[in-house]
Automatic annotation (TrEMBL):
Family: Belongs to the LysR transcriptional regulatory family.
PANTHER family named among the record's database cross-references: HTH-TYPE TRANSCRIPTIONAL REGULATOR YBHD
Species classification: Bacteria, Pseudomonadati, Pseudomonadota, Betaproteobacteria, Burkholderiales
Record key words, sorted: DNA-binding, Transcription, Transcription regulation
InterPro entries (UniProt xref): HTH-type_LysR_regulators, LysR_HTH_N, LysR_subst-bd, WH-like_DNA-bd_sf, WH_DNA-bd_sf
GO cellular component, as recorded: cytosol
Domain HTH lysR-type: residue ranges: 3-60
Organism: Alcaligenes xylosoxydans xylosoxydans (Achromobacter xylosoxidans)
SUPFAM superfamilies: Periplasmic binding protein-like II, Winged helix' DNA-binding domain
Keyword Transcription among UniProt keywords: yes
Pfam families linked: HTH_1, LysR_substrate
GO molecular function, one term: DNA binding
Listed name of the protein: LysR family transcriptional regulator
Amino acid sequence: MNLSLRDIEYFLAAIEYGNLERAAAACDISQPALSKSLQRLEADTGLALLDRSGRGLRLTSAGLAFLEHAKQLWAEYRDAVRHAMELRLGEAGLLRIGVTGATVDSIVMPVLKRLLPRRPALRIQLTQGLSDDLNEQVAGGRLDLAVAPLYANVPAVLRQEPIQEDLLCVAASRNHPLAARRKLALPDLQGLRWILPKPGAIARKALDARYAEAGLGLVPAALEVEHFSKGSLELLAHSDLLALVPQSALESEHDLVALPLAFSKPLQRHIALISRNATTWSPLMSEFRAAILEQPGTR
């Protein structure tokens, strides 16, 4: 077997675009050249990787198994090239970090505030997105690291290192009618509207689960957000809305309070540093990790 990294690249592009014409354009080659590359890869592996019947491209069962190995091989090759560049440039280098709305200002920016002065030649490329997308980008080698809420189910090639734990609380304006109560239960919140993370978010699922346990319907959302920005917290502070937010977010928001709501078990948010299991850690990556762990509140 004599696998070509270029053929691996073209195979991954074909899967990503699901169409030979679009994949060939993305790789800046002709469609016949791409077809020959895929045929060569199938000949080298001895496997039928693609089902070309019907419209578009579909992976065979063998192709599906090979895909994970191809992704890992291509990501490791890109790591090797980038690390070689770092060696040529000495301390200069690019560190690609994925962040979510929940982690960019609270964790990553304070780390960069300390790290960048230490490394004048360091370049940071931040990519903000949802956890699932960031996980895929780390797994595919397009990001070096990500700082994101921890998920139970992630691609097997990823490593999640828990770095922070934060209790979630139900917050409201200090002037909210329920703010003066000494104790509350979920039925007391019936009929009230919320600012909530989008469906599928960890915190949203946890709150929905508590409502279901109490025999209540879905939580009514007046506003759905990807993360709680300063503007959304100000809206909360000047309305009768409720929100499920990290307790740490209330430290700088004096117009907001945590309502005394008793849950069957605490709602917690876990933040993790995401990396690839097989990656070779560069000095830049290791230094970023060390700076993360130096922060108060991290493990």
